[in-house]
Amino acid sequence: MKINTDGVLLASLVDTSDAKRILDVGTGTGVIALMLAQRAIDSRVEAVEIDALAAEMASRNFSNSIFQDRLTLHATAFQQLEISGHYDLIVSNPPFYTDSLHNPDARKKLARHTDLNFFKELLQFASSYLTAQGKLVLILPTLLAETIITMAIEHNLYCTAEIQISSFAGDPVIRKIVTFGRIHTIGIDQHKFVIYQSKGIYSESYKGALAPYFLAF
Q1: pTM for the structure as a whole
Q2: Domain spans of the chain?
Q3: pLDDT band at residue 106, thresholds of 50, 70 and 90?
Q4: Are 74 and 52 in contact (CB under 8 A)?
Q5: In degrees rounded to 5, what are phi and psi of residue 113?
């Protein structure tokens, strides 16, 4: 799981404009943070990872990167970070709940799942440490995205945009890249994104988004 589709789509499609200080929560081996450092050339990118082995690999990847001077790794939980100042952009590809999508009573299972506290804490963290114009951007399964959009309001964060991701044109939405900010806008800016043109053939949108990072494209 060093590289996955959710992570690279988040990193390639998130709006990084005006983001000078970025935080990647749960960076894993550092792929998202590295991609954001490549995209936002004037930014400083911090990454936090609680798993020791993943954090060690992320640290090595950062050290071997040409962006190493703009990358910082925190080998801890985001709740334990000692922070001064605020972030313009916080992103996360949280590895939760994918199994719940196969449960016929998925909404009830999701509601009582103890790990929902992770999102409450992340929303509170973002509410405390985002700049006035800052954004929290998450990639989530569709059902979970609906739950988090509602939950965010309690932390004075509002969904302003979402990218609806499907495997093929006309297929159900399987993931959403959801953007939260402090300003309550009327309506949500919605876009669709399709991964495959046909079986085994990536769409032009997918190839275009990832061409700067994948040598195959």
Answers
A1: 0.90
A2: 5-159
A3: low
A4: no
A5: -70, 125
pLDDT band for 216, please (50, 70, 90 cuts): confident
SS3 track for the chain: CCCCHHHHHHHHHCCCCCCCEEEEECCCCCHHHHHHHHHCCCCEEEEECCCHHHHHHHHHHHHCCCCHHHEEEECCCHHHCCCCCCEEEEEECCCCCHHHHHCCCHHHHHHHCCCHHHHHHHHHHHHHHEEEEEEEEEEEEHHHHHHHHHHHHCCCCEEEEEEEEECCCCCCCCEEEEEEECCCCCCCEEEEEECEEECCEECHHHHHHHCCCCCCC
As a whole number of angstroms, the distance between CA 157 and CA 81 comes to: 21
Nearest 5°: the CA angle 204, 160, 169 is 30
In the predicted model, is pLDDT for residue 160 greater than 60? yes
- For 36-73, b/e burial (b = at least 16 CB within 10 A) is bbbbbeebbbbbbbbeeebbebbbebbeebebeebbeb
Question: Quick one: fold of 5-159?
Answer: Rossmann fold (3.40.50)
Q: Which amino acid is at 205?
A: S
Burial status of residue 98 (CB atoms within 10 A of its CB: 0-12, 13-18, 19 or more): exposed
At position 144, the amino acid (one-letter code) is L
